[in-house]
Design a protein that fits this description.
Blueprint lengths: L1 H9 L3 H22 L3 H18 L9 H21 L25 H4 L5 H12 L4 H8 L3 H26 L4
Length: about 180
C-alpha cells in the first residue's frame, strides 16, 4: 500500500504525499526530538524535511525505501540546525519523551525515552532507530553516514550504559517499578 502511495506521490499526487506524511509524522517528530532540544527546532526540522521530500520525491529510486529516505533527510536537517545553534559544541542534554515504548519486557514499566536521556545524542538516535523504529544496524549506519562496525559498537556501548543504569536503580530501590 505504501509503495503505491509513493508511486502516486512521485507522479505529483499531493493527496498521496499527504497520506504518507500523516503515516510517518509521529516517527519524524520522535527522531527530531531525540536530536534537538527546542520544540521550535524540532518543528523546523520536520517542516524542512517535508518541504525537501516533496520537492525531491521524484529522485527517490526505490519506493520501498521511502521511510528510510525521509528519515535520512530529517537527520541531515536536524544536524544542520544543531550545528547552527551550537557551533559544533556537543551538549549532553536531558530530553524526556511521552511514550511508553520499552527495550524489553523485563523493564516494561520504565519509559524507554527516560531511560536513554543520559546517553549522548548519537547513541540516543541509534537506539531510537533500532528499538522504536525497528531499523537494522546496517540501515542505521547508512542513514547516519557511519560505518556498520561503528554503529554496532555504539549500540553495544549504549546497552552497557543502560544496563549499568538499571543495575544502579535496582541496587538503590530494590526492584524497579
Amino acid at each position: 500500500m505504501s509503495d503505491e502511495l509513493v508511486k502516486k506521490a512521485k507522479n505529483g499526487d499531493v493527496d498521496a504525499f499527504s497520506s504518507l506524511i500523516k503515516k510517518y509524522q509521529k516517527d519524524l517528530y520522535k527522531i527530531a526530538k531525540c536530536r534537538l532540544r527546542l520544540e521550535e527546532d524540532v518543528c523546523d526540522a520536520v517542516q524542512d524535511t517535508l518541504i525537501s521530500a516533496y520537492i525531491s520525491i521524484s529522485k527517490l529510486k526505490n519506493e520501498k525505501y521511502f521511510k528510510t529516505w525521509l528519515i535520512k533527510i530529517l537527520i541531515n536537517n536536524c544536524n544542520d540546525i544543531y550545528k547552527k545553534k551550537n557551533n559544533n559544541i556537543i551538549y549532553f542534554e536531558n530530553i524526556v519523551f511521552d511514550t511508553d515504548e520499552c527495550i524489553n519486557e523485563k523493564n516494561s514499566n520504565i519509559d524507554f525515552y527516560n531511560l536513554i536521556d543520559d546517553l549522548d545524542i548519537e547513541e540516543r538516535t541509534i537506539l531510537v532507530l533500532l528499538y522504536s523504529e525497528t531499523y537494522k544496524a546496517k540501515e542505521i549506519a547508512k542513514m547516519l553516514n557511519l560505518n556498520y562496525s561503528t554503529v554496532r559498537s555504539k549500540i553495544k556501548r549504549a546497552k552497557a550504559k543502560l544496563e549499568k543504569k538499571l543495575k544502579e536503580k535496582e541496587d538503590k530501590y530494590g526492584r524497579i517499578r
